[in-house]
Amino acid sequence: MFVDSHCHLNFPGLRERLPEIRAEMAAARVDRALCICTTLEEFDEVHGIALAHTNFWATVGVHPDNEGVLEPSLDDLLGRAALPRVVAIGETGLDYYRLNGRSLADMAWQRERFRVHIRAARHAALPLVVHTRAAGADTVTMLADEGATSGVFHCFTETPAIAAAALDLGFYISFSGILTFRNAVEIQEVAAMVPLERCLIETDSPYLAPVPHRGRSNQPAWVAHVAAKLAQIKGLSVEDVARVTSANFERLFDRAAPSGAAPA
Ligand SMILES: [Zn+2]
Ligand SMILES: [Zn+2]
Q1: How far does the centroid of ligand 2 lie from the alpha carbon of residue 205, in Å?
Q2: 163 closest CA partner among 146, 181, 182, 186
């Protein structure tokens, strides 16, 4: 019924509990999840989780917050993107939230890393999983300049104007557990504005557990709470939100679309 479009199941605290996490998913009718890569160093582990389970898929990318890690070349990304069950490039993007005293000019390395990812996505004809924090304008500008046309702004926390620009680029908007937080008024406004046909839902596990689990280690089963909040905001049934966001997931990450029988 539901798909968790963004989670980190290889992170400590989750990878040791995969059987339990999968049982919780089944009980909550969360039948698929996309496992997101954040460094080249962890790719094999993320990919291994996807290879071992028919309802998990993987991405390849290096997160903008990761410093002191292998810097990906175009070929590093393309080689891994060609492997089975890899369905997207990312997560990648810009994050100006923690500059640690640096100027925006000092973050040129982050923009260069993002550019390599955007080019890889175009070469491989794969969607981008974009992380952007306090950097919405630069993120939109770079995607437009590089001709990106397919992807998702994950864990959306930017303004309605940035959401509109992302939609204009042809991107989807993914909502996390933040949507359920009482003080997340602006994100709830964005959720009301974005057409359901362009919405995805995610947990970003182990981070950002939704209400009523806020503060705990998150897990894919709890994406159902994000769906329920989105349904409430849009005045729809949770079944409709599940059906449409799952169809959106298959349309965007088309390598993850069922080739034969669809999961129930
Ligand atoms: Zn992220
Ligand atoms: Zn993430």
Answers
A1: 8
A2: 186
What is the value of pTM for the model shown? 0.96
Taking only the tens place, the pLDDT of each residue in 10-68 is: 999 999 999 999 999 999 999 999 999 999 999 999 999 999 999 999 999 999 999 99
Ligand nearest to the CA of 95: 1
How many angstroms separate the Cα of 96 from the Cα of each of 65, 106, 110, 115, 165? 9, 11, 9, 16, 19
What would the DSSP string read from start to end of 120-140? HHHHHT--EEEEEES-HHHHH
Cα dihedral sign for 42, 47, 48, 49? positive
| pLDDT band for position 259 (cuts 50, 70, 90) | low
Size (the chain), residues: 264
pLDDT tens-digit series, residues 107-131: 999 999 999 999 999 999 999 999 9
Residues near ion ligand 1 (CB < 5 Å) are: 91, 131
Give the relative orientation of helices 160-168 and 136-145 as an angle to the nearest 10 degrees: 10
Show the domains of the chain with their CATH numbers.
2-252 (3.20.20.140)
